[in-house]
Design brief:
Number of helices of chain A: 0
Oligomer: heterodimer
Number of helices of chain B: 0
Largest sheet of chain B: 7 strands, mixed
Number of strands of chain A: 12
Order of helices and strands of chain B: EEEEEEEEEEE
Number of strands of chain B: 11
Largest sheet of chain A: 6 strands, mixed
Helix content of chain A: under 10%
Structural class of chain B: mainly beta
């Protein structure tokens, strides 16, 4: 079975700083997808970024980028120029069997003014 | 595009009662998923449908839980004889095949 591990329960940075959230995963599949989702307080889960395992190029979406290290099974999220609205729980997830998402425990990120 | 909707948003029930939740997916999505999320944890997979067929159920889904997706459109999740341990956020998501999943706002269940 796939597992996803986020080792940072909480992080806090100042507005405009850069922050990196860590994620490691374990899978026996040759092709898979990885995601970062954001869940603001009392609001719904939002997709931040997606990475296909067969692509060597790291995905980027505006201020959000990933560092995908396939051999190390590592998938970190970098948020540049952080904003107050980035305050949320961030979940790393892998798509197992092209069907269900397996989530990590989450990292609570706080952006301070 | 109206997104995934769920109803009700909150449900408080007494132990032993039955509850039913509804999820309306994004209209063109053929896959629909149910997850459960407890406080401070990541969501856990419960079950998923492709069109009207329920293709996988987690071991978390006891016999008291049943899900349906008649006609491959909206889905319902029913919990019979609720227990305090069923208190959680129940999330619905939808997707096209082999694509990212989009989540609804969830139904928060409190069993007293």
């Amino acid at each position: 079975a796939q597992t996803v591990t986020q080792s940072q329960p909480e992080m806090s940075v100042q507005e405009a700083e850069t922050v990196t959230l860590s994620c490691t995963y374990d899978t026996s599949e040759s092709n898979y997808y990885l995601f970062w989702y954001k869940q603001p307080p009392s609001r719904q889960m939002i997709l931040v970024i997606r990475q296909e395992a067969y692509k060597q190029q790291n995905a980027t979406e505006n201020r959000f980028s990933v560092n995908f290290q396939k051999a190390a099974k590592s998938f970190s999220l970098k948020i540049s120029d952080s904003q107050l609205g980035d305050t949320a729980m961030y979940f790393c997830a892998s798509l197992q069997g092209a069907q269900k998402l397996v989530f990590g425990q989450g990292t609570r990120l706080t952006i301070n003014p | 595009d109206t997104g995934v909707s769920q109803d009700p948003r909150h449900k408080i029930t007494k132990r032993g009662q039955n509850v039913t939740f509804r999820c309306d997916p994004i209209s063109e999505h053929n896959r629909l998923y149910w997850y459960r999320q407890t406080l401070g944890q990541g969501p856990e997979f419960l079950t998923y449908f492709q069109n009207e067929a329920q293709l996988e159920k987690s071991r978390l889904l006891s016999d008291r839980f049943s899900a349906e997706r008649p006609k491959g459109s909206f889905s319902t999740l029913e919990i019979q004889r609720t227990e305090q341990g069923d208190s959680a956020m129940y999330l619905c998501a939808s997707s096209l095949e082999f694509a990212e999943q989009y989540f609804g706002p969830g139904t928060r269940l409190t069993v007293t």
